[in-house]
Structures are given as structure tokens and as C-alpha cells.
Specification:
The structure is a homodimer. Chain A folds into three domains: 151 residues, Aldehyde oxidase/xanthine dehydrogenase, molybdopterin binding domain (Aldehyde Oxidoreductase, domain 4, 2-Layer Sandwich), CATH 3.30.365; 171 residues, Aldehyde Oxidoreductase, domain 3 (Alpha-Beta Complex), CATH 3.90.1170; 299 residues, Aldehyde Oxidoreductase, domain 4 (2-Layer Sandwich). The first copy, chain A, contains 21 helices and 28 strands. By secondary structure, chain A is α+β, with helices and mostly antiparallel strands. In chain A, 60% of the residues are buried. In chain A, the strands form seven sheets. A seven-stranded mixed sheet of chain A has the order 3-5-1-14-11-12-13, with helices on both faces. The interface between A and B is large, with 65 and 64 residues.
């Protein structure tokens, strides 16, 4: 067995102290000379024609410098949400930016925004899935999505017998299916069939730090430098450059430390702000208010899922038929993997899964931790539990019996790569909380479990590596550190070089200084950047050994790196510290070329991560309140590079899973107004409802291509929580809750 | 003959437009939130004991936040000028910082500085070379240089017959010699001997932008980020880290666009400001005033040079004896190469050259364009001219006859590498200005020539190279662009890759984002970084071809890069633009690893550059004014990568050469006070005295190891100007001027 000296040891994130002492500068903390503060004027209607915008009142506010509307901006086809910019003629959701006020200070910008008068002619809006799918529903995009080719639009049309249906405009923006075997026969084979409709709510990512950006326009090139709280600096660079009409090299994106993102911070208002800053010729800062986050942000879609799951008496699954309908708001949203995942977790010979994505007059949806996985897992794992109950089988054994293993086929017919679904279930089976479930039941509690997985992302990634004169190894990557990945990469670099982890600096560079690193999303930074870092570090190591070899007139093969020094094996006085060696590569008297390694990586095989959870709950029969007493989180992480970082991900994901299960829902009234405009109306789990009751178990099934076997860990722990809690509620009360969140009202109503 | 598509073509610097439109942000333009403005309180005495510093009056000024003295700073051995920080007990030059006032705005800082009362007890000061060398001279460092070992100090002691003289403290801080052959015999062999004493003045680099720095302290690590106008970010990083007592990795130096440096901006007050910012916990900005530049800056040393140069009747040089004495102010200064260069330009069998560096109670000297070369070249080339006159030989032919060539020995006994001294002289010989010198004489003008060379610098250097999604090649280096080197490197990269130069971006990164690049000084950025850039670009090119080969299922050897696209030779429709190829290496759908090249370089062979100049002058017999009518600058640049950039260097150097020749002198009164505290008293050449009269000729003798043969070009053109003008004055008037600058008073006095 390989012995590691760095990975697997606990390392606290080097930026932690700055964060807890308030020293970290987040995007909202940044200031530039001549900077203007922006405030959005947002639509009061879900659907309306803009008759007139009167900016006189706003302009009369002292310190207000400009009020911009779509008229002042170039006309750009709004083919996606971040190109919607400011509303032109029509608004399609309540909260849509209609104008933007710029002022010398934030208070004036806010005053100004309140004084912009917009005269609307309200139009009928389809706010719910039902309304949007109705025959004569008003269309979000009556002429089709702007700037998208007819061919691409057809892709979203219904397909029947392999032929596209006759095209008729509707609010449906995507339809696709997965099928396998013979669904009718499969259902007929089943001894028991569970059929249910499940729904999930729109949920906001609810990071503490709102969207925040600061744009410095470059008036000569037409480009810009943008400091922004984002997961994807290179994506923003690409889009901003396209919208400004300049080469990407004229745009520089500096990803600032992120105060929470969870999928919601890829790109949003950066292109608008870049245009605005170019227009006014001054730096522009926009930090969303919580209300703006709630009405003008990009939450998750709501979903309605009808499942029919059949099994034979022995628990063998025979068929899964499903119709998933996602309410994505005013733009398509990348949740198409929902149907794929639903059909992939278990070995089911007969599948018939349909996915329909529907546009509504609401703000568009975006990713939220495990996008497209949380919803179908809630449905599937609830159905699995009910099936076990009806068959009087052990629900864990039922899952183990049917669980997919590496090589088994996923819904798309491709084989699962290395993954640990069964190992995770087995680890949960061995856990005291499962073993002692009868004691919990005796105490009036219910115990439920669920499992879910995330397929893992892949993306090209690169890294560079330098040896500094202080003997520290500097690794530069182009991705932001969302979740402590930089700490894990430091451990990986230390392991690959053979040095102490605290002598490694991982720099999350900006788009002008770092090689491409990929977006921090999809549970893939460690998985994709890890190998690039290893390669860069090993190159640097080779160079270091070559220099030392020349210095000692020795063979590089006879050298070793011990305690920050290169030494000739067996000749202790032939030793040079990395600091002195680096010193010989810098400065006028330098004897050797500087140490510079580079790593480039792409692996198209992803690293799926499975997480099983067990919830132990008590239900207050009087109030309907579900109180979680214990939440066990078991996850396959491939290799735990930095255990505290992984525990942080597991706990954070599970806490958010509890939010999905019990608390979080964006509510809209019938006209499409958001009713949950602040954290007074929108509930997230509190500390006493979460962290203290979570127990975590790490399982390590090495990912074949992962750095030291590591696989992505961010997404999995949010996936099964809602189903585990629902199953525990059913166990405690006999009531099957099918709608998220499971609020006390719903629990009582289910009684 | 190789045909080049990029190098040798003229390219204007991409940052030129920003500079001429005032868009560039220089260090003085930067602001940070909570920033404090610093002002120095400077010593009124050249030598004094500090009895008391009363800060009460300053602290009473509204907006003054703090007044710091040495007491508030850690005690650090002031072993060099930038560690002198604030005076502790004693001041050793008029202008030395004694205290530092911090205020919310610059006006308050200035008011505060004026209200700090320092009570001095004046002490006797040695201000001139004569005073400093006198028997009982007051010593600048009575106990030796602080923090320097006794051994190192002994290095500066006089050496006699190979044995160090008995050590006695003096103001002499360096002595060394070069000798060859038998000087007595050599002088005896000579038919003619010229013996003279020459002097040069202290000169200020007189950049337009003064020293300017802004420090953001990192209160957690104890480190800092410093934006500063510097030639040497990595050097500052090293020193600041040492002084703050933190690893270098905790210090980040961002070299801002430089508004002139010329050797004077390696490092000065950055360490002091870093300590001050740490002390007060806020960002601190210091922009020197012109007066502070003049009294607290780091000008060039003054020199006194006694030469005896002998030759046979046929012009063969037989002996050179010389004593060079440099007045470097209160610290040693790197001008030791003066003696080396003096003995290297010509093949002289018998040499005896002594260099003595003397400390005086004045601000310490630093480098100024071709440090240590301008002074001896003035002496040597004046003597050569006088020798030619006395021997009635053609002064150009005399030089050609004795000029060193590659392989000839330099003063240190090592052979000259490839260089073009003779070729430069030959090109000047062919120039109309030399051919038609009799016409000029007939018009009452004098014609003089001189030649000088710069040995060239070497330093390790590295570069990285990325391919951006817009098809642009991004080259990152850790050096600042002082003189348009980034433009030349863009041409080099374009040539190496095979693409249009305007598709190359050269990024001058900061010390945390770029690999080590070396200081921008010594005429070596293009020479040392060029090969690193070529290597990095070629690596990237190989990767690009490999990707295209995989895309086309072709052999990389069958591919070519034409017009920004990779194509299969002879198969025009198998072509992919660099932009689309790069697109395949970035983003979620990426098919290939990102393109990342890296280059590492060190070559210990330097690239000497020679420059010959011809001056045509008229001397006003009434006023003594020397009016230059024509200045021909002929220079060996190895290979002219970017001709306009090179012409800029040649012209700029020659203009500064005219300043040395005719105008520039820092004057001190007998107490050591600077009399030339502004550009009212200190004269630099005006536009009508310079640019319009300069003619330039490029000679290309390829440097063996230079990128495409290029050699350093920055330093040479300042070197021979003063001698050329002096020789022209002698030609016009018969008067031999031996003291720089040749002011009207001196011209009249020589009459």
C-alpha cells in the first residue's frame, strides 16, 4: 500500500483566518476611483408592454449621474438570460431589470431607482406550469428564442416516432426521452407498482454574499476588467468579450473570493455592467440587494414528476416510467440530466422517461448544487421506499439489490465508470444509526434512508508551477476557490513534489494571468485540476533535480528531496535547500534557468460520486413540524485528499438538503410576484436544525483517473436528503409526503 | 538568407495610445480605500546628530493621522540605502528621511511634514572627494557599513603587492585594479602620451514620473501588495520580504507602467513604506516631489579620472594608466565596471587601472543608463581624440586600428564575445556626416566622434504562453516593460509561432502571477527573455499542431499555420482557425487540454553593444554656448527586432548623452545642500536641443545567443555622446574640455 505524506492529512484552508477575521475583500468591498454605484429598476409585472419610462425624477436626485434604459444600450439578441440586459418594449418576469440608475453613492442610486417611473400595459402571464402548458397560453417567446437558429429551436420540439411533430410555438423549450426495453411488458411483470406525482419548489441558492461586480472599462480597447463574485471567470470573459465586440484578450475577469455560490454564480449581470461602464466611461459597481437576489436572481426550477416504478416480489425492479416537467422560468435551463439520472441509478430493464422543460413568466432558473439530480432523486428514492414498504422488504437491501455498478448501463446506454454506489449503501448498512433503527422507532421516531449520485463533470484544465526564492512552490490555476479546492490542490502538489503542504501556495489567478482552469461547478475542480497540478509540479521537480545534479555534479537519479532540501542520497553534506536552489535561478548572478512547470489535462471520463443518507425524525402531530434528530451522511469521495474540506462539503450539502426537504420554497402569487422577497419569508435551515445533528462517514472507492483516486465531492451530499427525510416521515407517521418542502401545513394535510 | 515575417517589421507599442491619451494609470494615479498619504521629513544637514524630534505640531494638523520616526520602526541594520529607512540618531546627508507624516490627504501630509521640528546638532561633513579623502576626514560610517561582515569590508580595503594594506577606517569603500603587461615599459614605448584629469558631475535620472509606490499591507500574514514604479519587481519582493520578516510568497509586487526610470528605479522607499503600512494597518501611498527626487533620490556618482594614454607614431596604443575615483555618496554603488570597461575597448598591451570608490555625506548614487560606462568613455575617448590630433592621424582610423574584436581580451583577461565595435566604426566612417566633415568645418563648425560599448547583462528568465479563445497568443513574463521590450517580444513570439504580431499579447505580470523575468536594466530584457519566449511559444505551437493533427487525423508534420489557422498542407478545406482550436481546449465541452507553453532560459554569455557617435557643433565665442547641429548615432543592435523601438532607444540615449555633455549637473554647496532642487536649476536638454538633430544608423552584427541575433540596445547610445561633443568642441575651438557638463562658463574659461 502506498504511503502518503501529504494527502489525507488535514489542512485548514490558508484563507480561513482572513475570512473569519473579516480581512478578506469580497467583491462588495472593492472600490475604484471615480466609481459609480448602480441600482436596478425592476419590473412590477410578470408580463407587460413598456409604454414609457420617465427618468426625470431620478435624474433630479442629487448625485445621480445617469439613468440608462435599453435605448442607451446596443441592441443585442437576448438569446439567454445574461444577454437580456435591460428590458426592451416588453417585460417577461416581475423583477426584470428595466432601467439602471448610476450615482456617486449607493443611497442616491437607490433613491433614483425609486423615482424612475415606468408606465406599463399589463399583459396576461402564464406563471404556473399548468398555465404555461394550457392551449392558448401566452407565450414567453412568441417568435421563438431570439438569436437562436430555427434548427436549434426544432431540437426542443416534440418528437414522435423519430419524426419531429408539426411545429407549433409553445412554452415548451425542451423535450427528450430515454427508453429501454419494453415499458408495458416491464410494468406487467411487476408484482407491485408505485405510482405517484412528486413536486419540488423553486429554491434560491441563498448564498450570504449576493451577486457583486465591479467593472473598470478600458475606453481605448473597448474592453474591461471585471472583479466579480463568480464560479466561472473564463465563461464571463468569453461572454463579455462577445457582447462588447472585442477580443477575449481585451477582457480580464478577476474572480474575487466567493461568499457562497452553489451554482448560482456563473454569469448574470456582468455583460450588462460591462456595457454600462463602457457607455458612461467610469467604473461601475453593482451589488444586488437580497430582494433583487430573490426577484432578479436565478433560482432553481420547480418540477412536477410522475413516476411508475414496478418490481417483482423479490425486489427486482422491472420498469420505470416517468414524466418530468420542469418550470424553468423565462429561459431554458440546463436540467436535462434529470431524466438521465432518474434512469441510471438502478438496473431497470425497462425504462420510459420523458423530460419536458417549460417556460413561464418568471425569472429564469439556473443551477443549484446538483442541478437536475435533487428533484428526480427525491421522486425515485421516495418511490423505492414505498416499494420496499409494500413488498415488506428491507429498503436498504432493496437498493443494494438493484444498485448499478461500474459497467452497468446508464439511461443513455453508456456504461457507468468506476463508482461506489453499493459500497456507500454497505457502509450505511453497517452504521449504528441503521443497525439501531428499532430503538429510534421505539422512541417514537422514524428512520428513513435514500441514496443519490452525481455523474461528475469534466473540463480541460491547466496549471503552472514555480519555485520561489523562499523555497515555496507556487501553483497557479485559472479557477476560483469555491469550496477549499485550493487547499486540496496544495496537498496534491505537496505529495507530487515531496514537500510540506504549508510550503505550497495555490494561486487562483485571473483570466489574464492564469491558464484555463474551468468553472468551479459540477464537482470537478479537484478531479480535473488535480492531474494538471501533479503534472506541473512533477515537471518543476525534475527541473529542481537537474539543477541540483549540476550543482553537485551528481546523477539526478541519486538525488532525493527531504525536508525542503535536495540531497545526494547517502551524502548528507551534499545538500541544498530549495530556497537556495531557487535563489540560483533568480537575480543578476543566477546560474540556472528559473524553475517553471506546466500541466495540461483533459480526461473525458467523469468521476461519479454517490451519497447515501439516513434521517431520523420526530413529527409533532399537533403542529406538523418535522424535527430531524439525526442525519447520517455516507459518501464515496474516491480519496479524501483533505478530510476537513470534505467533511465541510458533506455537511454543507446535507444542510442544504434539509433546506430542500423542509424549509425552502420561493413562493409566487397568481400574478407572478415573488412573495418571498427576503429571509424573513424565505426560510433556510438554522444552525440548530442542521450542523449539530449530522454524522459523516467517508467511503473511498478510488476514481480511476482522479488525482490519487479522488472524485468530485461537492454535489452528492445535497442529493438524497429530501428523500431520506420524507422516508423517515413516512416511517414515523405512515404519511407519504410527495411535495417539497415538507412544511408543517403539508405534513398536517397529509394526515 | 532567412526570411522573417514578423521581426524587423515596425510595430508601434500597443500601450502607446493609452499613454498619449492619458489613460494609462501610473503608480501616482492609484488609490485604495482607507489609503493614507505619506510625506517625508528630510534632514536639513549633511551630517548631524538628531537631538530631538517634536511631532506635536504635525499631529495637530487636521487629517494628519500619524508621524513616524525611527523609534516606531523595527531596528534593521542599514546595510544599504533602502534599509536606511528613517534616520536613527544621526543623519548622513541633507535630504535624508528623518520622519514620515501620514495623513488622509496629500496637503495635510505636506503641512504636517513642515511642522515636524527636528533639533539637530550639526557635525562636520565631508562633501567633496577631496574632503572625504583627507587624512582626518569625518567618516560616513565610522564603524564600518552596518550589517556587512568584516570580511566583506576588507574587500574594499587597499591592496598592495597582493596583500591587504593595514586596515584603517576611511571613506574608501571599494578599491580594485586591472593590470596587464608592464605599464612603465608600455609608457616608455609610446611616442606620444596624453595625460589629463577628467571629471564628471552627479546627474539625476530625471524621469518625468517620480518614485511612486502604494502599499496594501496584509495584516494577517504580515506581508503586503505593493504597486510601484520599478524596474525590478522581484528584487523588491525579496528585500521587502526580508525586511518584513515574511516569506517572499507573502509579498506581491505589481510593477506599474513606468514613466521613466533609467536605472534609478530598482528599489528605494518600498521597504520603508511596507514597514510603515504594516505599522499603521492601512494602505500607504508615497509619490516623491521633484525636490525630494533631487535631494532624497539616487543620482549617479560624480567622478575624477586621471588617464595616461600612450601610442606609437603609427597609432598603435602601447599603454593606459588610469586612476578612477568615484564619489558615490553615503553608500557603495555598483560602478566597479568603470575600470573594467576603460581597459577593454581597445587592445592595449600594458594596462594599469585603479578604481577607488569614496563615500561622502551626500545621498547615495545609483545606476543611470550605462552606469560606469559613461564616465570612463568620456575620458578615454577624449584622450583618443587628443592622441590622434597630436599624432596627426585620422581619429576614426586610430580607433579602428586599435578596436577590440571578438576573441580579443578584455581588461579581466576574458575574451570579448561576438560584438561589432569595428563594424560600427566602419558604418560611421561611411556616413555622409563624416565624409563631409570638411564642409562643416568650412562653415565654422567642429566635428568630433567617439565610440563606447556596454557589455550587456545576463539573468535567468522565464515565460509562459497560452492560446486564448480569440485566437490570440498570450505570453506572460515577470519583467516590466520599460522601453517597449514587450513590443519586441511580441514580434519575437509572432515569428516563433508563425502568426501576425498583433495577435500576440505580452503580459508583464506581477510577482505572484508571472515566472521570474529579471530586472529591466542592463540592456538585457530582449536578450534574456527573447529565448525564453521563443521556447514557450514553440512549445505552444507544438501543442497546437498536435491538437489539429488529432482533429484532422493527420500527421503533425503535414500541418502548417497560415493566417491564424492550422491547415493540412495541400488540403485547403482541412483547416481550423486558432480561435476554434483554442475553443476546443476550454469550457465544459472541451476536447483537448489547454495550450500552455513555458520557456526557461539562462545564458551566461552577454551581448555587448557598441555605439559610435559623431557630433557637429558650433561654439559661440561670446557666450561659450555649444550648439549641437548634428548628432549621428550608429549602433550595433545585433538584429533590429522592432526598428521604431530601437530608434527610440538610440534617440533617447543620445538625448541623455547631450544632457551629460552640456547641461546636467547636480550642484551642492559646501555644506552639502543640493542647489539644484528643481528643473528650474537643473537643466535637461529641450526638444529643440535634441531630437531634431539626431540621425541614426542601425548596424546588425548578430549576437550569437541572442533571439534572432538581437543584442541589448538600451544602454549604448548614451555612452559616447559627451566625448563626441567634447571632441567636436576641440575641433571647432582647439579647446580641450575635460569637465562635464561643458557649460558656457567652462567653455569660456577653457579659452
Amino acid at each position: 500500500m502506498t504511503t502518503y505524506t501529504a494527502i489525507g492529512r488535514s489542512m485548514l484552508p490558508p484563507d480561513g483566518r482572513a475570512k473569519v477575521t473579516g480581512t478578506t475583500r469580497f467583491a462588495p468591498d472593492l472600490r475604484l476611483p471615480e466609481m459609480l454605484h448602480a441600482r436596478l429598476v425592476i419590473s412590477a409585472h410578470a408580463h407587460a408592454r413598456i409604454v414609457e419610462i420617465n427618468t426625470a425624477g431620478a435624474l433630479a436626485v442629487p448625485s445621480v449621474v445617469a439613468v440608462l434604459t435599453a435605448q442607451e444600450l446596443p441592441e443585442i439578441a437576448p438569446k439567454n438570460r445574461f444577454r437580456l440586459l435591460l428590458a426592451r418594449e416588453r417585460v417577461i418576469f416581475a423583477g426584470q431589470p428595466v432601467a439602471l440608475v448610476l450615482a456617486e453613492n449607493e443611497a442616491a442610486a437607490m433613491d433614483g431607482a425609486e423615482r424612475v417611473q415606468v408606465n406599463y400595459e399589463p399583459l396576461p402571464a402564464a406563471v404556473t406550469l399548468e398555465q404555461a402548458l394550457a392551449g392558448e397560453a401566452p407565450l414567453v417567446w412568441p417568435a421563438g428564442l431570439p438569436g437562436v437558429t430555427a434548427e436549434a429551436q426544432a431540437h426542443g420540439a416534440a418528437v414522435k416516432d423519430g419524426q419531429p411533430e408539426e411545429q407549433k410555438r409553445s412554452n415548451v423549450c425542451d423535450r427528450h426521452s430515454f427508453s429501454r426495453g419494453d415499458i408495458t411488458a416491464g410494468l406487467a411483470e411487476a408484482d407491485v407498482i408505485v405510482e405517484r406525482v412528486y413536486t419540488t419548489s423553486r429554491v434560491h441558492q441563498s448564498y450570504i454574499e449576493p451577486h457583486a461586480s465591479l467593472v473598470q472599462p478600458d475606453l481605448l480597447t473597448g474592453g474591461a476588467t471585471i472583479w466579480t463574485s463568480t464560479q466561472a471567470p473564463f465563461w464571463i470573459r468569453e461572454e463579455v468579450a462577445a457582447i462588447l465586440g472585442v477580443p477575449e484578450s481585451d477582457v480580464r475577469i478577476v474572480g474575487t473570493p466567493v461568499g457562497g455560490a452553489f451554482g448560482g454564480k456563473f454569469i448574470l449581470y456582468e455583460p450588462l455592467l460591462a456595457l454600462v461602464a463602457q457607455r458612461v466611461g467610469r467604473p461601475v459597481r453593482l451589488v444586488l440587494t437580497r430582494l433583487e437576489e430573490m426577484v432578479a436572481g436565478i433560482p432553481t426550477p420547480a418540477s412536477r414528476m410522475r413516476l411508475k416504478l414496478g418490481a417483482r416480489r423479490d425486489g427486482t425492479l422491472t420498469a420505470l416510467a416517468a414524466e418530468l416537467t420542469f418550470d424553468v422560468g423565462c429561459y431554458p435551463s440546463p436540467h436535462a440530466n434529470a431524466a438521465f439520472l432518474l434512469g441510471s441509478f438502478y438496473n431497470i430493464p425497462n425504462l420510459d422517461i420523458h423530460y419536458t422543460e417549460v417556460l413561464t413568466f418568471k425569472h429564469s432558473a439556473a443551477a443549484y448544487r446538483a442541478p437536475g439530480a435533487t428533484q428526480p432523486t427525491f421522486a425515485l428514492e421516495s418511490a423505492m421506499d414505498e416499494l420496499a414498504h409494500q413488498l415488506a422488504l428491507d429498503p436498504l437491501a432493496l437498493r443494494l439489490k438493484n444498485a448499478a455498478a461500474p459497467g452497468d448501463l446508464m439511461a443513455d446506454g453508456k456504461p457507468w465508470p468506476s463508482m461506489g454506489m453499493s459500497q456507500v449503501l454497505a457502509a450505511l448498512q453497517a452504521h449504528p444509526a441503521w443497525q439501531e433503527r428499532e430503538q429510534a422507532r421505539a422512541a417514537g421516531r422514524g428512520v428513513g434512508l435514500a441514496i443519490g449520485g452525481w455523474p461528475g463533470g469534466t473540463e480541460p484544465a491547466a496549471a503552472t508551477c514555480l519555485l520561489n526564492r523562499d523555497g515555496q512552490l507556487q501553483v497557479t490555476i485559472g479557477s476560483v476557490d469555491l469550496t477549499g479546492t485550493a487547499t486540496g490542490l496544495a496537498l496534491i502538489a505537496a505529495e507530487a513534489f515531496g514537500m510540506a503542504p504549508d510550503k505550497v501556495r495555490v494561486i487562483n489567478g485571473d483570466t489574464a494571468s492564469a491558464p484555463f482552469g474551468g468553472a468551479a461547478g459540477g464537482s470537478k475542480i479537484t478531479y480535473t485540476l488535480g492531474p494538471a497540478v501533479i503534472q506541473a509540479v512533477r515537471e518543476a521537480r525534475t527541473q529542481v533535480l537537474e539543477i541540483a545534479a549540476e550543482e553537485f555534479e551528481a546523477d539526478p537519479a541519486d538525488l532525493e528531496i527531504v525536508d525542503g532540501a535536495v540531497q545526494v542520497r547517502g551524502v548528507p553534506d551534499k545538500s541544498i535547500t530549495l530556497a537556495s536552489l531557487a535563489g540560483k535561478t533568480m537575480g543578476f548572478g543566477g546560474k540556472y534557468a528559473p524553475v517553471v512547470g506546466r500541466g495540461r489535462h483533459l480526461d473525458k471520463t467523469a468521476s461519479p460520486g454517490f451519497c447515501a443518507q439516513l434521517a431520523e425524525v420526530a413529527v409533532d402531530e399537533e403542529t406538523g413540524e418535522v424535527r430531524v434528530h439525526r442525519l447520517v451522511v455516507v459518501q464515496d469521495v474516491g480519496r479524501a485528499i483533505n478530510p476537513p474540506g470534505i467533511y465541510g462539503q458533506m455537511m454543507g450539502g446535507a444542510v442544504q438538503g434539509l433546506g430542500l426537504a423542509l424549509y425552502e420554497r420561493m413562493a409566487y402569487d397568481e400574478s407572478g410576484q415573488v412573495l418571498t422577497g427576503s429571509w424573513m419569508e424565505y426560510t433556510v435551515p438554522h444552525a440548530d436544525q442542521a450542523a449539530s445533528l449530522i454524522e459523516m462517514v467517508i467511503v473511498e472507492v478510488p476514481a480511476e483517473h482522479g488525482p490519487f483516486g479522488a472524485r468530485g465531492v461537492g454535489e452528492p451530499p445535497i442529493i438524497p436528503t429530501a428523500a431520506a427525510v420524507a422516508n423517515a416521515v413516512a416511517d414515523a407517521t405512515g404519511r407519504r409526503l410527495t411535495d417539497l418542502p415538507m412544511t408543517p401545513e403539508r405534513v398536517l394535510a397529509a394526515g
